[in-house]
Amino acid sequence: MDQAGGTSLTYLSGSGWVDRPTTLESALTGDVECDVAVIGGGLGGMAAALRLAELGRDVVLVEADLCGWGASARNAGYITPTLGNDPRILNRFYGDRVRALYKFAGHAVDFTEDLITRHGIDCGYQPTGNIAAAPTAAAFRRMVAHGRPGRRSVVGDAAQLGIPPTFPGGIHIKVGGILNPGQLALGVREVVRTSAVRVFEQSPVTGVVDTGDSVRIELPGGRIRARQAILTTNAFTNELPIAPRNLSTPVWVTAVETEPVSAEMLDAAGWTSRTPMTTNHFVMQSFRPTNRGTIVFTTRRLQTARRPRADRMPDQAVVDDLVRGFRERFPTLTDVAPARAWGGWIGLTPSNMAVVGQTTPRVYYSMACNGHGLPQAPYLGTLLADHLVEKGMHDDLAAVWRESRRFAPGIVNPVTLRLGWLADRLGDRIGRLRR
Ligand SMILES: Cc1cc2nc3c(=O)[nH]c(=O)nc-3n(C[C@H](O)[C@H](O)[C@H](O)COP(=O)(O)OP(=O)(O)OC[C@H]3O[C@@H](n4cnc5c(N)ncnc54)[C@H](O)[C@@H]3O)c2cc1C
């Protein structure tokens, strides 16, 4: 694995879930022509390219590094039908479309579960559902009052849900589950490599121009002429001038994995159900068990940068803060050591929803699935491919489609992220005092 540092905690520059493959597809050289060029080989781009090839299109997929090695292989591995924001905020952004958004998110879970089964991808998928855990009693009351408990949701206190008593309660949403995202991303990569898609890795696109009768795509070693192009470059999209300005903000998310924890210790911590959890903090935290007997936890302090660097490593201060949060929620596991840390870039939108649209007559984009792209990115890539070939628009694509090419500047910046962190920690402290 890519790693640095000599302490017992290893900082990784790649995914903590799988080793990086040693053989890469060759870089694009010379002049290449195709029907559709897909730029960016995460789960979104790979799914779009696969579907286009299935529909008989001559497709070229170009990836700056290694397909799947971005957020797709580094995330926490939750497949959930939840949307990123409080329903009240979503109502403000989307009004009548909110119902359609929930349908889209549910169908994205079904799609990704089917993708795993259809291609027989061994990624340790467990359909556990997910517990939305309230960090404080006040947050629990809000959750119950404003959540959208459905037929497949159960509300309960910590004992009823089998989660640590440091959470007053939560909602177990019995849809979706958890998997090893590295195995999923590399599994899909294998499916794409053995399909009719022409895959070029180590091929960063530096420019995209819609010339009126085709799309010209520039790379260090050559160029592509395509009838149409799709950008699935996630957090890196702002780097391409053809993308709409302010489409999303690049945000760096850090994950930590513990050393193995025994079943007895998990039981003593109160996590008897072993169901993965996410909190309803302003910046969501997550805690999940893994197939290797460890716990992976993510996301307390988010970071942003003007330009996302693909080779970035986690910051020690952010890792320390995550570990502090883990110990507050699992006080009986204070002696469990953090073993590895890694991170990845996501594109964040103010609504916390994915955006799909068209930036010129021949260039489309599908991205910014925020923290929900594991099921949503491949589903949207597939729906967009269908739209390009068959021209119709699926209701789920229409739910997130952006007609306007203008985006207001996002409010995500170091100051707002810091304020969000402070608000969360203040809430935690008040919650602890009242416990
Ligand atoms: C730590 C972490 C935890 C997360 N947890 C979850 C979770 O539990 N559940 C969930 O649903 N989501 C989660 N997410 C979000 C999820 O991983 C993403 O939304 C999803 O993977 C996005 O997929 P993608 O294909 O759009 O983007 P990516 O996987 O980022 O792929 C984009 C690709 O484009 C390539 N690229 C960029 N620029 C260029 C260029 N100029 N030329 C060629 N190629 C280019 C990149 O190299 C990259 O491979 C998490 C993310 C992180 C980082």
| CATH topology label | FAD/NAD(P)-binding domain
Tally of individual helices: 12
Helix/strand/pairing category: alpha/beta
CATH architectural arrangement:
3-Layer(bba) Sandwich
CATH superfamily: FAD/NAD(P)-binding domain
Low-confidence parts: 1-6
GO cellular component, one term: cytoplasm
Pfam families: DAO (PF01266)
Domain FAD dependent oxidoreductase: 35-386
Protein name: FAD-dependent oxidoreductase
How does this model look, in words?
By secondary structure, this protein is an alpha/beta fold. It has one domain: FAD/NAD(P)-binding domain (3-Layer(bba) Sandwich), CATH 3.50.50. It is 31% helix and 25% strand. The chain contains twelve helices and 22 strands. Strands 1, 2, 6, 7, 8, 14, 15, 16, 17, 18 and 19 form an eleven-stranded mixed beta sheet that branches. Strands 3, 4, 10, 11, 12, 13, 20, 21 and 22 form a nine-stranded mixed beta sheet that branches. A hairpin with a 2-residue loop joins β12 and β13 (222-231). It is globular and about 65 Å long. Residues 1-6 have low confidence and may be disordered. It binds flavin-adenine dinucleotide. The site of flavin-adenine dinucleotide has 41 residues, from α1, α2, β14, β19 and α10. This is FAD-dependent oxidoreductase. Residues 35-386 form the FAD dependent oxidoreductase domain. InterPro entries: FAD-dep_OxRdtase, FAD/NAD-bd_sf.
